[in-house]
Write a structure and sequence with these properties.
alpha+beta, seven-stranded mixed β-sheet, 11 helices, 34 strands, 31% strand
Length: 630
Amino acid sequence: MTLAGAPLGVLGPAFAALGSGLIALYILKLRRRRVVVPFADLWRKVLSDTESTALWRKLRRLVSLLLQLVALALILFALGDPRLATSRRGRSLAILVDTSASMQATDGKDGRTRLADAQEAARKLIRSLGSEDTAMVVAMSARPSPVSGWSGEDRALLAAVDGLSASDTPADLDRALGLAEDALHGRPRPTLVLIGDGAGYSLPRVPAGIDLRYVPVGRSGDNVAITAFAVRRYRANQTAYEVLVEVQSFRDHRSSLKLELLQDGEVVNVEPLTLGPGERVQRLYPNLAGEGTRLEARLVANQKGPLDLLPLDDRAYALLPHRKKLKVLLVSSGNLFLEGALLLDENITVDKLAPAAWDPARAARYDAVVLDGFTPPAPPAADALYLAPEGPSSPFPIRGTVDAPIVTDVAATHPLMRWVTLKDLNIARASRFQLGPGDVAIASALHDPIICARDRGGHKVVALGFDLKRSDLPMRVAFPVLVVNALDWFAGADTGLIASYPLGPPLRLTAAPGARALEVSGPDGAGDKTVVRAPVHDGRATFYADRAGYYRARSIGASGASVADFAVNLASAGESRIAPEPTLTVGGARIARPDPGRLGVRRVLWPYLIALALALALVEWWTYNRRVTV
């Protein structure tokens, strides 16, 4: 037996002090009322009988005192919260409750959410636990986490279940199983109870030695969702933009609805949609214009009432990229091909500087620096494009040269290579770069990197390991496209369509130069809008979003612009496919429901001690009033 509350070192002195006071009250003599009565001879015999029973009266008073002392001892011992040692016969249950986005579906009993049904199922399970069972409650979303410790007390476990809330993130069942496996390791009779809708569950494995049970919730798979939403500005005309929306039906019947596109809360486009069972459609809206930056796509029913069972994925959010003219510093002794490529982009302004006039302080005032055949002693405090860097100050260490290299490998998916081909490129000589952590080989000659890129420390770097004048790259269409792609990558326009962040994976947010931390607030419209502080490492901070909507990130300690907004969406077809699974099978065997526990004495003893103390107090009160112990 162990004490989970006050220790014996506290309970002993407390009993001594309170018991002494109780004894002092009992040894006080009772003041008797003087009564004058006639017939003294009549009372003489009564008094003689009283004297003969005086010893018994004292003993009866000692019985009353003993009852009070025992009741006091029981109450103080209950404050120590004594508990029986863990029984090897009892079960250890990890109750895994699904709190992912699909649990917001409103097909529960009486129109409740699936999470409400799951909570009710968890309460029934907890109330059915055996006297020797212990349990803990785990919430399963994108980041599974325990919401209670191991306990055999109903009240603590029920409070943990009552505090569960559904997030907007997909469920990560594999991580949840790993967490439960670690929690159950070494415990007697390990049992894992999974309570959820089964939507999107995949059980590639079951933890060894663990008894797996399943309690299903949910009744219908009626849902239509926005599964993708992205926006980009046109490069030639940054006042206009285009939007891509993907809508998918998860119903088994035809759906008729409307797709609305909003800008800063104002409807700018409405399109009726008719989707067949399981159909997925994409809509591209070109040549849109407006001063607003917050875009929203929304699915609306043609009739009154809700569109489907899961309103969460009927909306999606995106932010229109800011219009920005890139300030570029060209450090060159003269290169008409390079200057011509830079002049092709009307969204940049170019200032030219001779290598002899290099000034790091001036370069830091530009968004990007192009270094043509010049390698400064220290890297500039801006994004940089190096052309033929040399010496120990090269952004990528040079480990030799290669004559007449042939490009054999390219990073085709990197933003630098969009619409660029380097096939049959002729180069007289190129430097062989050595890659570091996070560096990317854009082009390699027999596994020797000759074009590299890096995104680290808040700045991006691109290096071409050869002299443009000693290659035919400037004579190719790929050259100006490569230069423009590099500047676009520096500016952040590194994808064809800028998608909102998806819920679930950690978000890597770029901080302003010099920032120590990011304070992230949001999402807008949340009743419990909170602020999360995330430390910055190498110019980026990691943030976990659990709600869809618009967020704001403020850089702490930044020298420049310190506020940036971003949007987060569910964007998960697997989570929007909400059809419940009434049964789960592993290895061809159906997973059964959990069994009720055995009756018996609970490990937590204080309720029994309090009840016994009250019973003794009641006995003492009854005997006192009946004049048995007086």
